[in-house]
C-alpha cells in the first residue's frame, strides 16, 4: 500500500469518539439475609460521547442496578468501570451526570423553579446564577412560564419534565434516566420522547436510558442494550442509524420494525436461557 493510500484510508476512518462510560467484566452480587442475589454478571459495555443508549430487559434483570453503579449509588463486586476516565465516585464528586428517577420526586412545598435550583443550592451556586440556570433548563424542556407553579399544579408529564430540567440544571454532559416515562400514558410518552430527542440533538449530551418499551428504545436510541433475566448479562447490542432529528413516523419504516424484531427476539432468547 502506498503512503497516499494509507493517508486516504486514515482520512476515511470515522474519528474515534471519547468513551464516557467504560465497563469491563462488571458484576454485582447483593448479600441479603436470604443469601446472595446475583444482579449483574460479566457486563462489558462502552458508551461513547453523544450516544443515546437504552437498556431493555425483563423486570429485575439489573437495569436500574447498572445505572446506579454508573452513578456511584451501588458498588460493583467485580470488574472495572470508569466514567470519563475516572472512578464513578470521582465522577460523582465532579457532578459528571444528572440522574432522572422513575418518579419525578419533586418537593411539593417548593415551586418548580426552586425544585430545579435545589441541586445548585447544595452546590452553593449564587442565587442569580441559580435562577439563570433554572430558566435555561426549564426552557429546554419547554416549561418556561411554569417557574412559580407548584408540582401539584402540573400534569404527570410536566412534572417529569421538571425533574429532567433539575437533572439538566448543572449542565453535566451525561444524563442517566431510569424509566422516566414509564408511568405516563402513551400519547404523553410519545410527546416526551420527541422532546427528549430534540433536547439530545440540541445539546449533544450522552444519555443512558432504562426502559421496558421496545418502541421507545428503538425510537430514541443510537444503541440498544438488550439484557437477560437475572443475573443481568448483555445479550445483544444493536446500533441504529436513524438521523438525530427523526420523527415518530419512523416507527412505520421497515428498518424500525426490523430492529424492534431483533430486540424482541433477543428478549425471547434471554427468557428461554433462563428456563
Ligand atoms: N439493595 C438491594 N439488595 C438486594 N437485592 C437487590 C437490591 N437492589 C436490587 N436488588 C435485586 O437485584 C435485582 C435487579 O434489580 P433492578 O432493580 O436493578 O432490576 P430492573 O431490571 O431495574 O427491574 P425493573 O425493570 O423491575 O425496574 C432484582 O432481583 C432486585 O430485587
What features would you describe in this structure?
The chain has helices at residues 3-12, 63-70, 88-93, 112-116, 118-122, 127-140, 156-168, 186-203, 214-220, 254-274; strands spanning 19-32, 35-48, 52-56, 78-83, 97-100, 174-178, 206-211, 223-227, 234-239. The protein has 275 residues and is of the alpha/beta class. It folds into 2 domains: 18-96 and 173-275, P-loop containing nucleotide triphosphate hydrolases (Rossmann fold, 3-Layer(aba) Sandwich), CATH 3.40.50; 103-171, no CATH class. The strands form 2 sheets. Strands 5-6-7-3-8-9 form a 6-stranded mixed β-sheet, sandwiched between helices. A 3-stranded antiparallel β-sheet has the order 2-1-4, with helices on one face. The longest helix has 21 residues, at 254-274. The protein is globular and about 50 Å long. The chain starts with a helix and ends with a helix. 38% of the residues are buried. The mean pLDDT is 89. Bound molecules: adenosine-5'-triphosphate. Residues 30, 32, 37, 39, 57, 59-65, 230 line the site of adenosine-5'-triphosphate (ATP). One of its GO terms (molecular function) is ATP binding.
Architecture blueprint of SSEs:
Elements: H1 3-12, E1 19-32, E2 35-48, E3 52-56, H2 63-70, E4 78-83, H3 88-93, E5 97-100, H4 112-116, H5 118-122, H6 127-140, H7 156-168, E6 174-178, H8 186-203, E7 206-211, H9 214-220, E8 223-227, E9 234-239, H10 254-274
Parallel strand pairs: 3-7, 3-8, 5-6, 6-7
Antiparallel strand pairs: 1-2, 1-4, 8-9
The chain binds adenosine-5'-triphosphate.
Amino acid at each position: 500500500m502506498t503512503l497516499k493510500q494509507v493517508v486516504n484510508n486514515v482520512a476515511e476512518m470515522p474519528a474515534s469518539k471519547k468513551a464516557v462510560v467504560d465497563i469491563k467484566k462488571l458484576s454485582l452480587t447483593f448479600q441479603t439475609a436470604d443469601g446472595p442475589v446475583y444482579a449483574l454478571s460479566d457486563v462489558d459495555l462502552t458508551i461513547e460521547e453523544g450516544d443515546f443508549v437504552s437498556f431493555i430487559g425483563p423486570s429485575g434483570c439489573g437495569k436500574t442496578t447498572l445505572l446506579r453503579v454508573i452513578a456511584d449509588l451501588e458498588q460493583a463486586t467485580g470488574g472495572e468501570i470508569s466514567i470519563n476516565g475516572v472512578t464513578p465516585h470521582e465522577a460523582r464528586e465532579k457532578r459528571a451526570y444528572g440522574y432522572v428517577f422513575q418518579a419525578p420526586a419533586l418537593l411539593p412545598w417548593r415551586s418548580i423553579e426552586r425544585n430545579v435550583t435545589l441541586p445548585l443550592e447544595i452546590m452553593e451556586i449564587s442565587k442569580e446564577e441559580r435562577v439563570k440556570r433554572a430558566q435555561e433548563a426549564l426552557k429546554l424542556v419547554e416549561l418556561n412560564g411554569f417557574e412559580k407553579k407548584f408540582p401539584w399544579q402540573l400534569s404527570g408529564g410536566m412534572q417529569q419534565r421538571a425533574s429532567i430540567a433539575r437533572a439538566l440544571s448543572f449542565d453535566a454532559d451525561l444524563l442517566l434516566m431510569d424509566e422516566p416515562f414509564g408511568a405516563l400514558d402513551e400519547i404523553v410518552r410519545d410527546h416526551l420522547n420527541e422532546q427528549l430527542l430534540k433536547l439530545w440533538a440540541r445539546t449533544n449530551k450522552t444519555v443512558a436510558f432504562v426502559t421496558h418499551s421496545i418502541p421507545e428504545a428503538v425510537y430514541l436510541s443510537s444503541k440498544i442494550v438488550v439484557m437477560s433475566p437475572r443475573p443481568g448479562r448483555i445479550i445483544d447490542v444493536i446500533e441504529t442509524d436513524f438521523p438525530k432529528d427523526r420523527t415518530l413516523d419512523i416507527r412505520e419504516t421497515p428498518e424500525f420494525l426490523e430492529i424492534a424484531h431483533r430486540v424482541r427476539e433477543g428478549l425471547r432468547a434471554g427468557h428461554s436461557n433462563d428456563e
